[in-house]
Write a structure and sequence with these properties.
With 89 residues, the chain is mainly α. The chain is built from 4 helices and no strands.
Length: 89
Amino acid sequence: MRADVITTKPIYSSFLSCDKDIEKILKTLFVSSRPYSDRLKRLLIINEKDCLDMDNENYQRIINSMSLGDMINKNYIKFDHKIARGTHE
């Protein structure tokens, strides 16, 4: 293994960085990984048997009009925290 890949610094992580990490993950999944992100959007948004039919222009219009913020607001993507996060606990 390359020496420049191995880091000797301690890793500091907390629940306070979860929101930033979730934002990075969502951007990777739904924004920067095209055309795969369009297929993932089709699976989440379009509730039909032929949702992966790439020739259907109506589906493509729906996918193009839906932003990441819209998907979160319309509950296609939900955040369900399993551990309660107190501010100063």
